[in-house]
Amino acid sequence: MTVTYDRKTEIAGQLRHVDKWYGQHQVLQDVSLAIGSGEIIALVGRSGSGKSTVLRVLAGLSDDHSGERLVAGAPALAFQEPRLFPWRTVRTNVGYGLTRFRLPRGEVASRADQALADVGLADRADAWPLTLSGGQAQRVSLARALVAEPQLLLLDEPFGALDALTRLSMHGLLLELWHRHGFGVLLVTHDVNEAVALADRVLVLDGGRVVHQTEISDPRRPTGSPSPQTDQHRAELLAQLGVQI
Ligand SMILES: Nc1ncnc2c1ncn2[C@@H]1O[C@H](COP(=O)(O)OP(=O)(O)OP(=O)(O)O)[C@@H](O)[C@H]1O
Ligand SMILES: [Mg+2]
């Protein structure tokens, strides 16, 4: 069952007791989670644990699960690879995020330009995707996700393919956009450091179940000022993932 809220609510997105099977293989088992309005939740887990499947269910891309899905408005999605249309300009790619609103073309272009300005790419609106760097393409993908002002942003390893410096600057950009717009975020990541640096809460998925939750005691502490709690959170999560340090 799906319930969609159109108004601003306390909850940006929620799953209740969701099970999902691929044939004989159960990939999600009784998954319940909630992303509060304006909250950043990170979802970590080993490869194949079901992270992308959780995201797909929340995004409304799965219709054969049981349990409940509740979302505020239409969630926006961005993936590890930017998935831009190479035959469309950057502006038109971003405008694609507004398709369902059937707005006049001029309105679409001006909103797309605003979203591109938000991610620092106002000057690349007329460029072709293939002429962008990996980091720039990922910014365009973020602009396309955010152009419709979603209340829930679903990110599937969005920074995984970027080099370390670009990844850090994307963290800064995500937080800046989040401060400005206040959407809720579900961030799927393999990177425990990224999860601890960005999230309010980190959930661990194992074999399709949520097996652990770490509440970050001092979320989004500036980088360069590590705290004993940060190390503790990281160690706790790595232990949950079966990594000994
Ligand atoms: N379309 C599909 N058909 C059949 N099985 C699938 C399909 N998509 C995913 N699965 C299976 O569901 C399980 C969970 O996959 P999922 O992609 O959600 O994992 P993940 O945690 O995102 O992994 P990764 O970290 O590698 O991206 C895996 O066992 C996978 O093989
Ligand atoms: Mg995945």
Walkthrough of the structure:
With about 240 residues, the protein is α/β, with parallel strands linked by helices. Helices cover about 35% and strands about 25% of the residues. The chain contains 7 helices and 10 strands. It has helices at about 50-60, 90-95, 105-120, 135-145, 165-180, 190-200, 230-240, and strands at about 1-5, 10-20, 25-35, 40-45, 65-70, 75-80, 150-155, 185-190, 200-205, 210-215. It has a 6-stranded mixed β-sheet, with helices on both faces. Strands 1-5-2-3 form a 4-stranded mixed β-sheet, with helices on one face. Helix 3 packs across helix 4 (about 135-145). It is globular and about 50 Å long. The site of magnesium ion (MG) has 3 residues, from helix 1.
Task: Write a concise keyword list for the protein shown above.
245 residues, alpha/beta, 6-stranded mixed beta sheet, binds magnesium ion, binds adenosine-5'-triphosphate, 4-stranded mixed beta sheet
Short note summarizing the structure:
By secondary structure, the chain is an alpha/beta fold.
